[in-house]
Amino acid sequence: AMEKNYVPVFLLLIVISCALAKDAGKKDTKDTTAKPKLPQTLSRGWGDQLIWTQTYEEALFRAKHSQKPLMIIHHLEDCPHSQALKKVFAEHKDIQKLAEKFILLNLVYETTDKNLAPDGQYVPRVLFIDPSLTVRADITGRYSNRLYAYEPSDISLLYSNMQKALKLLKTEL
């Protein structure tokens, strides 16, 4: 009678480990033929261990109430520039660490808020919003025609802009 009790538990363990193995393998294999699936997490690959908000409204609410700045990344899954920036962003240890101090949102669609497209709706673009819900038009990248665009080679500039967004916060609040 004792042995019977062990069987269900053992089967459950096998099922769980298979499910985990399947997920782990999924990340590496790029299936180009498949339609883009919905992302597994809200991070969409920009930092899986970071906490990402689901909507712009939620992000604004959290920024205001936590008194943290908000960083919004506009990108598209099928845009090579977005993909390239995402890769360096996700692999940049210091950026990932610093990002914990922000309310984070990445969007694959435009919001109706025109303030998020001060100079057009291009991707990738990164904007900072302070807890007073003001878009920081003063924190820009290095391209005059696309002020909030960053290339993978601009990753250190993006890092210092994140530092700037946090520093301005301390002096102004």
TrEMBL record:
Its main location: endoplasmic reticulum. One of its GO terms (cellular component) is endoplasmic reticulum. Keywords: Endoplasmic reticulum, Secreted, Signal. It is found in: Endoplasmic reticulum; Secreted. GO terms for molecular function: dystroglycan binding. Residues 1-21 form the signal peptide. Belongs to the AGR family. This is AGR2 protein.
